[in-house]
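Morning!

This is the sequence you dropped in the shared folder:
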Amino acid sequence: MKRRVTHRDIADRLGLDKSSVSLALRNHPSISVATRERVKAMAEELGYRPDPALSTLARQRWAGHETGSGATLAYMVDSRMDNFHSHRRFLRTARVRAEERGYGIQEFNLGDYPTIESAARVLHHRGIRGLLVPQFKHVEGPGIAGLPATQFTVICLDTGWDHHPFHLVKTDTFEETRLVWHEAVQRGFKRIGGAVLSHTPSAMDDATRYGASLSAQREWLPAKARIPLLTTNNRDRDAFMAWFERYRPDVVVGFIPRIWEWLCEAGIKVPQEVAFAAFTLLLAEFPHVSGCVSQGETIGTAGVDALISAMSVNEWGVPERQHKIVLPPLWNEGATLGAGPAGSR
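The structure's back. Tokens below.
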């Protein structure tokens, strides 16, 4: 039986010590890029493959050392952004999960620092290596895009306004949008109005909801029954009401529960006069609204697990290939959709 190639074999061939080979194979930033590439090339030439049992033991030793020293993760927020209030929506469950895994979480406000470099220095001096980044907008000044990422391991939580190349945990926006359309179709609604709405500036998932709605219309509705999708700003009540009065759908499927509030403010009874279901809703705030539940709690938990996993294999900076953990849609029956035209009117 052929002997397994070890770190010592690679080190002897290159004139390095075994610890340098180990760090290089784990992409540790303390080893130069050139040396890492030399080590990887030699490992490939010799046919090196990690020993799964030894790798597991090494990760356990690493985790024990890190958690024993009171390792802290940073949960990033930015008070300069107009969506600052929503940054913390994953924090509670992320903190619970981190404590279960033996870590602490520290909220870190980028808005407190004049440059991203100064923020990175503070994080580094506090011994913080792992960062959780929620939905950020683009702002002038220090932004997460300018982070010297080779010092940190980063996981993004849900999609926002800027694309970041780090690993991502998110809800399946396409499937949750289609699920809401499917529920309306299955219950027998014929005139289904899609208030897809949008952000200004555009968010990354605006196009996803629009594309999912188009595909749902074309797959499940005859051409003559397709009401034009509404894509105006998600705060433009007047545009929504004008669209609603023009097309008079018997059910509105839409981006957020704000649409249900607009209907109620206009004196329209839901679901008696028109039914409603939301593509995404916060269950704690809108338990009575039908639609897909925003999975903030699951995103926070899964984000911490993904971050610890990436840290345990010494994955620094921008990954060679971005991974996305996509959470399936979760339906809330609520009381605004009803059983369908025959059952609710």
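Headline: The longest strand covers residues 275-281.

More detail when I'm at my desk.
O.
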